[in-house]
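FORM 7B: Structural annotation worksheet

SECTION A. Query
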Amino acid sequence: WKYVYNRRLALERELGKDALECQEIVDFIKEAGLLKTVWGLGDCYEKLVKEFLVNIPEDCVDPMSADFRKVFVRGKCVEFSPTVINQYLERGEDDVAEMEVTDNEVCKTLTNSQVKQWPRKGKLSSVKLTVKYALLNIIAVVNWVPTSHSSDVATGLGRFIYVVGTKTKFDFGSYIFEQTVKHSKSLAVKIPIAFPTIL
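SECTION B. Predicted structure
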């Protein structure tokens, strides 16, 4: 509890009216089924989110466990699964194959071939991004893949904005579920808790 208690929540922000006027970006976000992560965000109760994380059982991902995809919080049993998350996001239940694209292909797409290979240091400068991907990056570093390093794009963040910007089929419910389980097991205090308003 002490590790989670001292962690901060990602400070999700709603898109302003100016951003919503950029129809192309809104279309990408809608197509991905992520509109509820940037618009109409509900209240976020910090202590409740942290209690939820602490109460995710170790065997939550084990189909043989009685606690499979269940979280007990404040006396209630809550179903917690990629399916539930996708239903909340109003996304379809299509089977989605694993994304088969190399980091170099992602790099070329994000930079319109200005940079042909993902940098060896592991991070791509956000200055090299096209306007579309620069805007998606600004949204992503706050709401989807929280980081304080907005001037650099790590491979995970790059792949995320690539998926949104290319309208690649991707199971965002599973992504959010896996990130949440990962956060519940992490002892790192500096990593912000992602997707707190969804939780």
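SECTION C. Observations
Residues 98-168 form one domain. The first helix runs from residue 2 to 5.

SECTION D. Sign-off
Analyst initials: ____
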